[in-house]
Amino acid sequence: MNYQWYPGHMTKAKRMMEENIKLIDLIIEVVDARIPLASRNPDIDQLGRNKARLILLNKSDLADEKENEKWSRYFQEQGAFAVKINARTGAGVKNVLPVILESCKEKLERDRKRGIKNRPIRAMVVGIPNVGKSTFINAFAGKACTKTGNKPGVTKGKQWIRINKNVELLDTPGILWPKFEDQAIGAKLAMTGSIRDEILNLEELSLELLGYLHGSYEGILESRYGITESQDRLAMLEQIARNRNCIQRGNELDYAKAANILLEEFRNGKIGRITLERAEIQEYAEQKEE
């Protein structure tokens, strides 16, 4: 399956970010804690050179807690600040403001020496579609100041949001990059819901997810679905279809329905707390490159 999605409004969103980057002191990047690298837009690194960086590991309640800790350390070693949050429930959001102030400590000190008082920190909030960017802003601001939705592409234009006298946020539409060089990145984005289901082959995607879960979280599928894991992926999907009564007319198995059940239950955490990317694997890959 070839994963591509780059609507015209995303080109416009990137241009808007390029125009506004000079106005801001800090980039707050919201990522999906289950796919901390795949849910980062590499364009942001280019756009945000010489800016303070804060990575918010959102949906951390759905991700493996051990991996959350490893990814927090990984980003800190990369020179960014990192905070684990669950924007939907508000968990961890109260920890963000102190980290914003800490990350811009040098900027605040420079302002003080120049006699500049009461100028708020201006932070740009960025993230690819459906990582929970607008939900975080609403939780952080304490009010529904942006539209939110559980589908990609809800935020259409920029908005300035005043949090308090110290911090202002610039909200931006979620943007994906024009081409996934690694199709595995596209698969991870599709699994977590950052690419619209309507353009995907969900049965094929579910088979990829089954393969990963069997290889990395042995026993989790057997526990949730009562299936035998020592069989191929298609046989596992077939068994899920039987056990969940996914039957069509003529007593045929409904693979599409079984695939939908698997993906939906992965996305909402019913299968368990799962991370699709491992920090130590990324660190090893970077060491090899060096």
TrEMBL record:
SUPFAM superfamilies, from UniProt? Answer: P-loop containing nucleoside triphosphate hydrolases
| First-listed, main subcellular location of the protein, grouped into a coarse class | cytoplasm
Record-level Gene Ontology MF annotations? GTP binding; GTPase activity
Q: Which CDD domains match?
A: YlqF
Print the keywords alphabetically: Cytoplasm, GTP-binding, Nucleotide-binding
Q: Which InterPro entries match?
A: G_CP_dom, GTP-bd, GTP-bd_ortho_bundle_sf, GTP-bd_ribosome_bgen, GTPase_MTG1, P-loop_NTPase
Protein name as it appears in the record:
Ribosome biogenesis GTPase A
